[in-house]
Amino acid sequence: MNFDEPADFETIRTEIRRLCSRYPGEYWQGLEPDSYPTEFVTDLAEHGWLGTLIPEDYGGGGLSLAGASVILEEISASGGNPSACHAQMYIMGTLVRHGSEDQKRRWLPEIAAGRTRLQAFGVTEPGAGSDTAAISTTATRDGDRWMLRGQKIWTSRALHSDLMLVLARTTPVAEVERRLDGLSVFLFEMRDAGGDFVGASEISGE
């Protein structure tokens, strides 16, 4: 088995190391215990590194999963925290594979350019825990739109995202053959929802 990396991976490593050098240990220490590395994530996004898995047709880098892994590996090797931003890489795969063409044309170029953040995925609920099929958040048709009702917890980076993917039940569990049927994913615009429709608050880890 050949474990040699493609030549362009070394270029990626070099550029990520250069970017990370602007955020030394003192930067990360200054964020303790719970501040979000806004400057670092913005820098990565504006240089296109968080849009590497987006196809080139939508303004992304069109990299493979291995290429994206190299980016996260170098962030870690440089003393940074990739968990602050790695979700923007893998979450958007849902939009790339399952989004409508209108959704992809609208959002993927914005994400690739670093103007919009998609870093949150609302799955876990207070009464369901890790049993995804037991979620109670529902989505129902209301004319030409969907109405989502429910509660999500432990939604990492929700307070730092413009968009969020939300898992909701569109068919009651009693009406499906398998418990995992009847679930749908929605792309939710966090910034435009308004306080009358959505509320978000931090949960202490203590």
Count of strand segments: 5
CATH fold category name of the largest domain: Butyryl-Coa Dehydrogenase, subunit A, domain 1
Biggest sheet record: 3 strands, mixed
- The CATH C-level class name of the largest domain: Mainly Alpha
Name the average pLDDT. Answer: 90
How would you write the strand order of the largest sheet? 1-4-5
What's the arrangement of secondary structure elements?
Layout (H helix, E strand, L loop, with lengths): L6 H14 L4 H5 L8 H9 L18 H13 L9 H4 L1 H7 L2 H12 L5 E5 L15 E5 L2 E5 L13 E7 L13 E7 L17
Parallel strand pairs: 1-4
Antiparallel strand pairs: 2-3, 4-5
Helix pairs in contact: 1-4
Describe what this molecule looks like in 3D:
The protein has 206 residues and is an alpha+beta fold. It contains seven helices and five strands; from the N terminus they run H-H-H-H-H-H-H-E-E-E-E-E. The protein has helices at residues 7-20, 25-29, 38-46, 65-77, 87-90, 92-98, 101-112, and strands at residues 118-122, 138-142, 145-149, 163-169, 183-189. Strand 2 (138-142) and strand 3 (145-149) form a beta hairpin. The chain is globular, with a radius of gyration of 19 Å.
Condensed summary:
It contains 7 helices and 5 strands, in the order αααααααβββββ.
Task: Throw out a few tags for this protein.
Butyryl-Coa Dehydrogenase, subunit A, domain 1; 7 helices; Butyryl-CoA Dehydrogenase, subunit A, domain 2; 206 residues; globular; two-stranded antiparallel sheet; single chain; alpha+beta; 2 domains; three-stranded mixed sheet
